[in-house]
Amino acid sequence: MEIGYFNGKYVSLNEAVLPIDERGHQFGDGIYEVVRVYDGKPFMLDEHLERLIRSGNAIKLRITETKEDLCNLIIKAIEESELKECVVYLQITRGIAVRGHLFPDVPMSISMTVREAKPLPAEVRLRGVTAILLEDERWANCYIKSLNLLPNILAKQAAHDAGSYEAILVRDGQVTEGSSSNVFYVKDRKVYTPPLTKHILPGITRLAVKNVLSQLNIPLVEQQFSEMDLLHADEVFITSTTSEVIPVIKINENEIGKGTPGEITSRIYEQYKNLIKAHK
Questions:
Q1: What is the pLDDT along the chain (280 residues), one digit of tens a residue?
Q2: Which DSSP letter does residue 185 get?
Q3: Rounded distance between C-alpha atoms, residue 207 and residue 26, angstroms
Q4: 58 to each of 143, 160, 180, 202, how far by Cα in Å?
Q5: Which phi and psi (to 5°) does residue 124 adopt?
Q6: Catalytic residue among 9, 41, 76, 145
Q7: Which DSSP helix (H) or strand (E) runs through 15?
Q8: Which of 140, 70, 150 is nearest to 112 (CA)?
């Protein structure tokens, strides 16, 4: 069953547990991770928790639990839910205190949900998705996986309203990432993706795809590129924890390549599935 967790207690997802003075609620003062679970096993959990700790350090949030503690907490919650194919959302905030801008001297708060996974329909992946280009109006430190996602939400909604799956963001003429994904393109059988900077989240699936490309002996080039580079690509795909690897066949009104999922993207996804099976 789908379950929730708040500061040491398992709860129903419909139970009211959040105090009004919780800083995540009032300020977005916290960080989070989303972990995909396959056959009861959290995929790349160590990498997710390392990123969580880096995000905590970046906002000066002292995480009192060790990585091992957090790992055990997540695994226990998965076992408690009895779900085999699920998604774990873990959130850590600066705690519960009367509203004030300065850091309070209070314990941090941990909340979590374990929900059944909702994989992308096979026909969507076979057909590919469309995207729009938008100006990247987010703050300067997007490498932090913080709770402050309003610009991402607005971009995702704009894509939805335009009948597209994703919004690909452009800052100062250079592609950064999607509203909830990392962006790759293929040209002349090489794969390109922006290098990691403060403007880009170091995606865990991005990291997995780098490993996949190495296994397939497909060259990866990490360099900045423009929207025109993207529009003239042979293939484009996006990656995220919950959506995995998705081909993009049209951006704005421009077909990418032949307007169908490309061969290299398909090979990458097949090898990504092998990586998941090996992890089990």
A1: 999 999 999 999 999 999 999 999 999 999 999 999 999 999 999 999 999 999 999 999 999 999 999 999 999 999 999 999 999 999 999 999 999 999 999 999 999 999 999 999 999 999 999 999 999 999 999 999 999 999 999 999 999 999 999 999 999 999 999 999 999 999 999 999 999 999 999 999 999 999 999 999 999 999 999 999 999 999 999 999 999 999 999 999 999 999 999 999 999 999 999 999 988 6
A2: E
A3: 33
A4: 9, 32, 20, 14
A5: -65, -45
A6: 145
A7: none
A8: 70
Length in residues, the chain:
280
Spatial separation of the C-alpha atoms in residues 246 and 232, rounded to whole Å:
18
Compute the CA torsion angle 41, 45, 46, 49 (nearest 10 deg).
-150
The closest of 237, 232, 4, 205 to 129, measured between CA atoms, is 237
- 9 labelled catalytic: no
Residue in the block written with tokens 């250079």 = 174
Q: What is the spatial distance between Cα 252 and Cα 243, in angstroms, rounded to a whole number?
A: 21
Strand runs (DSSP E) across the chain, as ranges?
3-6, 9-11, 30-38, 41-42, 86-93, 109-116, 129-135, 166-171, 174-178, 182-187, 190-193, 220-222, 235-240, 244-251, 254-255
Handedness of CA 155, 161, 167, 169 (dihedral sign): negative
Pseudo-torsion of CA 252, 255, 260, 264, nearest 10°? -90
